[in-house]
């Protein structure tokens, strides 16, 4: 196989990471991430499908379907025998741990306007202090005509901050600091006049009318909003060998999965599955443990091969899924947190994630499949196994494997500071992962 020159490889890596940075910056919430994915898919010729309408699918065509605005499945129908070869699936998730704004969040005290927040997922709370924060998400409102509407909102500029307590008032902060998630992480968003107050829904309504020009908006009824750091992602390091940014877990996998699907050929039936709610267990109508993926797979099978229940089972038996979610890279300051033989390095290739207790769905069969795939395509690979004296996280892999009976592999790029407000990965690893996933779709 002919290898690219070093210059061409660097150009490919730079282009991929530039696109990833733009994607993350445009995607402060799962809703925005799905909208960003859908825009790129439409630009590439993929057609939108409505779940409430009949589907007429054509061979060698791309489609995508969205559920509840924050989960998306994109697929190519391919041109080969679906019953004989099944689906090639890549799964990821659109959500990240964060602070979500409560339904009645207003806190007015000492002439400061604050918003009560709820912790979503396994947030690393310390890095949220003293950051320039903004607000984004979905707003549901009533128009003057009585019609219910919704829109995505993003204030973009920094409008909130969670100030630290000065060390003079907490002398043990560096040795013995704990964080109370109810009382310590309440952001400040404004200073009030004496006896003043804030009304978040009124603030949102004014933003809809003035900034977004939605003049028909009459009343904000509900919202799904979260805080995010306005600092954009960036390439860092002496030679820009790392990428740092919010939500790398798991928007990196969503973006690279989409690019790989677009680069893949039209031979096989290929899916990219990006679902919400992974960070809180995936048990929802739009999560990996819900019916979304199974429903889409069944409708594709029915449209392409008029599959019976038995033939659908046969198709799934021929299928395989790569669950792609970031892995823990060995931290140079904390090497004792890793098994000596299974400490992945940044910029050394994707990681096969293995767990004897089925926290990951990798099997010997799927691991061998991926190792051969990477070997043929000159992609270095690594392995991660958690220490026996530590708990292990999980992914959508075991969930999808258990729900659909799919052969499944858990992989991901190694990462530092997972679940922090700003995570870090290797700049080369995005290209390694893209090469592997594109080869998987093409195999």
Topology of helices and strands:
Elements: H1 6-25, H2 30-43, E1 47-49, E2 62-67, E3 71-76, H3 82-85, E4 87-93, E5 98-109, E6 112-120, E7 133-143, E8 148-154, E9 188-191, H4 200-211, E10 217-229, E11 234-236, E12 242-245, H5 248-263, E13 269-275, H6 292-305, H7 309-317, E14 320-324, E15 327-328, E16 351-353, H8 364-376, E17 382-384, H9 396-404, E18 407-412, E19 414-416, E20 423-426, H10 427-442
Parallel strand pairs: 1-2, 4-13, 4-14, 14-18, 15-19, 16-17
Antiparallel strand pairs: 2-3, 3-13, 5-6, 6-9, 7-8, 7-10, 11-12, 12-20, 16-18, 19-20
Helix pairs in contact: 1-5, 1-10, 5-10
Description:
The protein is α/β, with parallel strands linked by helices. It has helices at 6-25, 30-43, 82-85, 200-211, 248-263, 292-305, 309-317, 364-376, 396-404, 427-442, and strands at residues 47-49, 62-67, 71-76, 87-93, 98-109, 112-120, 133-143, 148-154, 188-191, 217-229, 234-236, 242-245, 269-275, 320-324, 327-328, 351-353, 382-384, 407-412, 414-416, 423-426. It has two domains: 6-96 and 246-442, 3-Layer(aba) Sandwich (Aminopeptidase); 98-229, Aminopeptidase i, Domain 2. The chain has a nine-stranded mixed sheet with strand order 1-2-3-13-4-14-18-16-17, with helices on both faces. Helix 1 (6-25) crosses helix 5, helix 1 (6-25) packs across helix 10 (427-442) and helix 5 crosses helix 10. The chain is globular, with a radius of gyration of 23 Å. The model has no long low-confidence stretch (mean pLDDT 94).
């Amino acid at each position: 196989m002919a290898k690219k020159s070093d210059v061409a490889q660097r150009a490919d890596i730079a282009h991929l990471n530039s696109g990833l940075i733009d994607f993350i910056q445009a995607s402060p919430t799962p809703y925005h991430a799905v909208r960003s994915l859908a825009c790129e898919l439409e630009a590439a010729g993929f057609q939108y499908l409505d779940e409430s309408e009949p589907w007429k699918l054509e061979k060698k065509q791309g489609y995508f379907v969205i559920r509840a605005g924050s989960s998306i499945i994109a697929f190519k129908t391919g041109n080969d025998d679906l019953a004989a070869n099944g689906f090639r699936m890549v799964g990821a998730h659109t959500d990240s741990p964060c602070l979500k704004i409560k339904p009645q969040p207003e806190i007015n005290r000492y002439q400061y306007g604050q918003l009560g927040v709820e912790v979503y997922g396994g947030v690393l709370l310390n890095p949220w202090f003293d950051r320039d924060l903004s607000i984004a998400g979905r707003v549901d409102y009533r128009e003057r005509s009585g019609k219910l509407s919704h829109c995505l909102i993003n204030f973009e500029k920094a409008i909130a901050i969670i100030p630290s307590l000065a060390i003079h008032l907490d002398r043990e902060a560096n040795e013995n600091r704990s964080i109370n998630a109810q009382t310590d992480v309440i952001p400040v968003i404004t200073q009030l006049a004496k006896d003043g107050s804030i009304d978040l829904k009124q603030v949102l309504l004014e933003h809809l009318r003035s900034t977004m020009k939605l003049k028909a908006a009459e009343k904000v009824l509900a919202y799904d909003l979260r805080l995010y750091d306005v600092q954009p992602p960036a390439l860092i390091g002496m030679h820009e060998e790392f990428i740092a940014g919010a939500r790398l877990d798991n928007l990196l996998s969503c973006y690279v999965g989409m690019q790989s699907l677009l680069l893949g050929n039209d031979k096989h039936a290929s899916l990219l599955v990006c679902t919400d709610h992974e960070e809180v267990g995936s048990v929802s109508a739009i999560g990996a443990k819900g019916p979304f993926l199974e429903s889409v797979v069944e409708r594709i099978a029915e449209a392409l091969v008029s599959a019976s229940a038995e033939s659908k089972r046969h198709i799934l038996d021929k299928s395989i899924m790569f669950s792609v979610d970031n892995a823990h890279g060995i931290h140079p300051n904390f090497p004792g947190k890793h098994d000596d033989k299974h400490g992945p390095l940044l910029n050394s290739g994707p990681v096969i994630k293995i767990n004897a207790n089925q926290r990951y769905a990798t099997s010997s069969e799927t691991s061998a499949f991926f190792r051969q795939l990477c070997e043929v395509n000159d992609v270095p690979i690594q392995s991660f196994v958690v220490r026996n004296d530590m708990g292990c996280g999980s992914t959508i892999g075991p969930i999808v494997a258990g729900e659909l009976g799919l052969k499944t592999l858990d992989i991901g790029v190694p990462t530092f500071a997972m679940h922090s407000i700003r995570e870090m990965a290797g700049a080369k690893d995005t290209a390694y992962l893209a090469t592997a996933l594109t080869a998987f779709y093409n195999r």
